[in-house]
Design goal:
The chain is α+β, with helices and mostly antiparallel strands. The protein has five domains: 71 residues, N-terminal domain of TfIIb; 50 residues; 184 residues, Nucleotidyltransferase, domain 5, CATH 3.30.420; 77 residues; 109 residues, no CATH class. 40% of the residues lie in helices and 16% in strands. The protein contains 20 helices and 16 strands. Helix 16 crosses helix 20. It is elongated, with a radius of gyration of 38 Å.
């Protein structure tokens, strides 16, 4: 049996060499595989020392762009100096590596490169070209933000280096850079609000008027505005409020509180991103708007009318914040509710909508009450088995009855001006749902543009504006030679509707009797549109008229005509010029017929 010399058989472990068997005797397992050694240590070349993790990421992106080599993280090795991250080349079978040592004692990051070189050629092109990026940025500013739309436009321009995936990734990075990360926490939203809570010196700078972020209850309500918007609302008497959805991934609605001027143009004052539209949410928005306006003006803000849909949450919030204001229900929402309720009864639907439209033009509360009783009696005779009569009486005559014009002739009867802003809001998001964090950042830009519009494009009018078209209609009406009937007070006059030149005493008596008694709804509807009641304004103000245009817009040809007769209005010469022909009728125009065929 042979002996194994220990000095020859094993080398010192401290020398770094592996231990191996140099001779084998009987019974020695010589056919076993050799134990692998430690291997040759990698040689790292120090490249640069950066001050933070963000600087390292920026350096890494620049390195990839300049050399068109992409890196991916392979592993992390903790050490006494700090955490060491190893990145390898993404190309298959390439051994090139770099390391980033995050120092434990400071924020520095030491970048080193392994001695292994790349074993492949750099691609001819990588990522989006600079031409494609510039084109996408221009189109993005113009509102083209869908990847497929951008792809088709780039392809039509001959920029073929981009594909849809690259464009989508580029847009994601762009949105994250401009508006923040897609995922945020309640703490992130709270910090965002705290940073913007101080009122700025610039009146067009957006700031958070009031906010509530409660992670335990899952409640968020962030109210934003500018001093310029609040200053516009100081003299307003009509407030509108509503909520709109389909803006965020989380399903949060946006609550808008706005004011309207004498021309019924709406100016948003407070914009809120909320987790719901409860009574507490609306109350918080309205109270925040009220307090902000009072802080700017130094005077109490007490609007006369609040216009909104029939939501009970809004009604309760208005009672809490503006208890003396008239709660006006939007007429458009009433009509849509009736249409939805009668959607399967076409014949009854058409007749009922016509009756309700006539009732909506009631000039006073007493007239509305009498006419509504007559209308319900008519429906009971015509459709005795239908349950719509009871539904309408309970919902729109007893519970929510403030939707007729005569309840307040100086305020809009609909919330359509504010509803139109819902489409404006969605234009800023390109009709895409955004994460709530990114949507808050978008709101900052959106509200600032609204604020800048108040200086020139959207001024606030305290008196209704009279256009050339209004003057021309009044001038044409005066040429018809209408003769009014006056009351004893000298301010109230009655004008004939339609083509009649004047009114007889009998016709006026029939009108007054129908308005006072409402014996039947058919009689009321007939007489309501037979005579227009015009009351001259005081101190040079515009007269009021009972015609549909006058009640809804406050300016009509009858009111201007009375102003001319009273000497308070002068029609400009440009409005007296006759218009050639007539304006195009509604609908698709008739195609031109062949030659020699007469066509009117």
């Amino acid at each position: 049996m042979e002996n194994i010399d220990s000095d020859d058989a094993f080398q010192d472990e401290g020398s770094g060499a592996s231990r191996s068997i140099v001779n084998s005797g009987p019974g020695t397992p010589a056919d076993l595989p050799r134990k692998s050694g430690r291997g040759k240590a990698k040689v790292w070349e120090k490249l640069i020392v950066l001050g933070s993790h963000d600087e390292f990421l920026e350096w890494l992106r620049k390195e990839e762009s300049d050399h068109q080599q992409r890196w991916t993280k392979k592993k992390e090795n903790p050490s006494s100096e700090g955490m060491k991250r190893i990145y390898r080349c993404r190309h298959r079978d390439c051994k090139a590596e770099i390391s980033a040592l995050y120092h434990a004692r400071n924020t520095n990051v030491t970048v080193s490169r392994a001695a292994n070189e790349h074993t492949h050629q750099a691609p001819a092109s990588w990522g989006l070209s600079s031409e494609a990026k510039e084109a996408i940025n221009d189109l993005y500013r113009d509102g083209v933000r869908k990847p497929l739309q951008l792809y088709n436009i780039l392809r039509s321009r001959g920029i073929s280096t981009a594909n849809k995936t690259q464009i989508d990734n580029f847009l994601k990075r762009k949105r994250e850079k401009e508006h923040g990360p897609p995922s945020v926490t309640y703490h992130d939203i709270s910090e965002w609000c705290e940073q913007r809570s101080a009122p700025p010196s610039d009146e067009h700078e957006v700031y958070v008027v009031k906010h509530l972020v409660d992670a335990a209850l899952g409640r968020v309500c962030v109210v934003m505005s500018t001093k310029a918007l609040q200053r516009v609302a100081t003299g307003a008497k009509v407030v509108h409020t509503d909520a709109t959805y389909k803006l965020t991934w989380q399903g949060f609605p946006a609550i808008v509180a706005s004011v309207s001027d004498a021309d019924r143009h709406v100016t948003p004052v407070a914009f809120a991103v909320s987790s719901g539209e409860t009574k507490d949410d609306y109350e918080m928005v309205l109270r925040a708007m009220k307090q902000a306006i009072e802080a700017v003006s130094g005077e109490p803000f007490e609007p006369r009318v609040i216009v909104a849909d029939a939501a009970e949450a809004i009604t309760l919030a208005v009672e809490a914040v503006f208890p003396r204001a008239l709660r006006r229900v939007c007429w458009f929402h009433v009509r849509k509710n009736v249409e939805s309720y009668l959607r399967r009864q076409s014949a009854m639907k058409k007749a009922c909508l016509e009756d309700i439209s006539v009732l909506q033009l009631a000039q006073s509360e007493e007239e509305f009450s009498r006419a509504s009783v007559a209308m319900l009696a008519k429906w009971e005779r015509q459709w005795p088995e239908s349950d719509f009569r009871k539904h309408f009486q309970k919902q729109w005559l007893e519970k929510n009855s403030s939707w007729y014009e005569g309840i307040d002739v100086e305020s809009p009867s609909t919330n359509n001006g504010l509803e139109a802003f819902n489409n404006v809001i969605k234009s800023y998001t390109c009709r895409e749902r955004l994460p709530v964090g990114q949507f808050l950042s978008t709101c900052d830009h959106m509200i600032k543009e609204w604020s800048l519009d108040t200086t020139d494009r959207r001024p606030f009018h305290e008196e209704p504006s009279v256009s050339t078209r209004h003057y021309r209609d009044a001038w044409m009406y005066m040429q018809e030679g209408k003769e009014p009937l006056y009351l004893d007070d000298g301010r109230t006059m009655f004008l004939p509707a339609g083509s009649k030149k004047g009114l007889t005493v009998e016709e006026l008596s029939a009108y007054i009797q129908a308005m006072d008694s409402c014996e039947s709804f058919e009689q009321y509807a007939e007489q309501r549109f037979a005579v227009w009641v015009v009351k001259a304004g005081e101190n040079g103000q515009m007269a009021t008229c009972s015609c549909p245009v006058g009640m809804k817009q406050r300016v009509c040809k009858h009111a201007i005509t009375v102003g001319v007769w009273k000497g308070t209005i002068t029609i400009p010469d440009v409005a007296k010029h006759a218009v050639i022909g007539q304006k195009r009728k509604r609908g698709r125009p008739t195609a031109t017929r062949p030659a020699l065929v007469r066509q009117d």
